[in-house]
Amino acid sequence: MASPIKGLRSVCRDLYLHRGLVSDPISALRFFRSDDxxxxxxxxxxxxxFASRRMDWLGVRxxxxxxxxxxxxxxxxGIQSPVVLDIGANIGTFALYILSQHGGxxxxxxxxxxxxxxxxxxxxxxxxNYDWRVFHAALWSTAGVVGLKRASASTSDTxxxxxxxxxxxxxAIQRWAPSPS
Length: 181
Known about the structure:
The chain is α/β, with parallel strands linked by helices. The chain has helices spanning about 5-15, 25-35, 55-65, 70-75, 95-100, 115-125, 175; strands spanning about 40-45, 50-55, 85, 105-110, 130-135, 140, 145-150, 160, 170. It contains 7 helices and 9 strands. The strands form 4 sheets. Strands 3-4-5 form a 3-stranded parallel β-sheet. The radius of gyration is 18 Å and the shape is globular.
């Protein structure tokens, strides 16, 4: 059995490491101590609000805290109103990261998983002052039906044949790609 002091240290460490995202320490404490992967917390990244489930936290940490996509900012630097496609958007952490740095960006987030899309949509609704559009769709080379095999972390879902537990009719990539002129 873990000692109360060790447990307190762990909680304090979690709160300290994520202090930039936490606006309500008590709610964050409940979130970080929960064993339920669907447990949801509310957070802030710079000026943007967002919700995350425990199962989404790996993506939050990689994108917002570790800033693994900071190279994308170099790509859009100098562009007044860049158009950004966030394909496989998960809960929208990449969109949040881009919009926190470049508020004039036009972001299109596409997420196939139904329950993850609901969190994405909620995150979009918490940030209505940005040009951020969300779509419940899969992007594939052809139109049809694909299945989504769920994993314990929402960032690890994979496409399988059409009899998966979460089937969706994908949009053909040609629908999203600009027509050649």
